[in-house]
Amino acid sequence: MKSLPLQRRTLAVLGIVVPLLALLVYVALRSGPLAPVAVTVATVQSQALSPALFGIGTVDARYTYRIGPTVAGRLQRLDVDVGDRVMAGQVLGEMDPVDLDERIRSQESALQRAQAAQREADARQTFASAQAVRYRQLVAARLISEEVAAARQQELQIADAVVSAAREDVGRARADREALLAQRGNLRLIAPVDGVVALRHADPGTTVVAGQAVIDVIEPGRLWITVRFDQIRATGLAVGLPARIALRSRSGQVLNGRVVRVEPMADAVTEETLAKVAFDRQLEPMPPIGELAEVTVDLPALAAAPTIPNAAIRREGNRLGVWQIIDGALRFAPVTLGREDLDGQVQVREGLNVGDQVVVFSERSLTARSAIHVVERIAGGSP
């Protein structure tokens, strides 16, 4: 009689435990560590890629004209301000000439005196020359002695020497005056090209030294962008390649440009290659110097080859490869990669064939023993 209640209790316990065990096994197989890993897959396709390089740069002036005096002095006036348009040859300002104007006037007076002395010497030479000719004629007629004619010839030689010295004095005075005029001209700050005043380093009354810039002038039509490209992806960068430029101040507008220089010196700290990209046309209004820009350089198109999304690339130890799906099982396939485009497609040189399936995204890390479940997108994760 006692065994019957015991059997009932045993059956009751089993009735509870067995469903719990079944539920535990179900949970372990469906959402636990033994559950299949949800993955998204892609098929290796043969397609031609149009690779491109993307970089960030800043707008710079191709040429900056730093205008300043050639001698130390005080800035007397400055007629332009930042942002003003200037023309080639326009006087932008002037240094204080101090006593240079007085020295020029003094030198002009010295030149006039030297020229007057030269005219007097020329007149004396003309008279001495006529006298020498007349006395030679008198000697030929035996009306005077040879000694008198020789004296007149000597006077002519002296007159010639005086004329020569007078001409040298005039040349010296003229050269001194031209030197002073050149110094006076150097005190004027003149625009070398048509451009825009970019910077103003000094105000009137400031003392500046020789070679110090007072203002900077740039040419609005000769702007370019200094762009930085990752050295790993910079293969194929060359002069002449077309580029698309997006300025921060012109959202949604794409400007055309071209690579005009690849710098021979790279940045060893940031591991970037530097290049200069010029605009195809002059921009109106001119973008600010130093403005950030996004630059995309189009590289030559590549021939068709097997391609996969670069999101499928994995690194297992020292090997680079992808998780390939073969008959529902996973196999890590090492690959050799080629070029890639900005859409995330990368060429596979070795390791895969067209039509192979590879894992792109997964819920968690995979192993060769992982069970997988292919889905269109992973909930809460990448598509």
Could you give a short description of this structure?
The protein has helices spanning 3-30, 100-140, 146-186, and strands spanning 37-43, 45-47, 52-61, 64-67, 73-78, 85-86, 91-95, 188-190, 195-200, 207-208, 215-218, 223-230, 242-247, 255-262, 272-279, 292-298, 305-309, 314-316, 319-326, 329-334, 336-340, 345-350, 357-362, 372-374. By secondary structure, the protein is an alpha+beta fold.
The biggest beta sheet reads: 6 strands, mixed
Termini Cα gap:
65 Å
Mean pLDDT: 86
CATH class of the largest domain equals Mainly Beta
Count the DSSP helices. Answer: 3
Q: Residue ranges: pLDDT <50 for 5 or more in a row?
A: none
Structural class: alpha+beta
Give the beta-strand count. 24
Write the element-wise H/E pattern from the N-terminal end onward.
HEEEEEEEHHEEEEEEEEEEEEEEEEE
Task: Please compute the radius of gyration using only Cα atoms.
Answer: 46 Å
CATH architectural category of the largest domain: Beta Barrel
Percent helix, as a range, is: 25-40%
What does this structure look like?
There is one protein chain. With 383 residues, the protein is of the alpha+beta class. It has 3 domains: 34-49 and 303-383, conserved putative lor/sdh protein from methanococcus maripaludis s2 fold (Beta Barrel); 52-92 and 190-300, Elongation Factor Tu (Ef-tu), domain 3; 100-186. Helix content is 29%, strand content 34%. It contains 3 helices and 24 strands. It has helices at 3-30, 100-140, 146-186; strands spanning 37-43, 45-47, 52-61, 64-67, 73-78, 85-86, 91-95, 188-190, 195-200, 207-208, 215-218, 223-230, 242-247, 255-262, 272-279, 292-298, 305-309, 314-316, 319-326, 329-334, 336-340, 345-350, 357-362, 372-374. Strands 1, 18, 19, 20, 23 and 24 form a 6-stranded mixed beta sheet that branches. It has a 6-stranded antiparallel β-barrel with strand order 3-12-15-14-13-16. The chain has a 4-stranded antiparallel beta sheet with strand order 2-17-22-21, with no helix packed on it. α2 runs antiparallel to α3. It is rod-shaped and about 180 Å long. The model has no long low-confidence stretch (mean pLDDT 86).
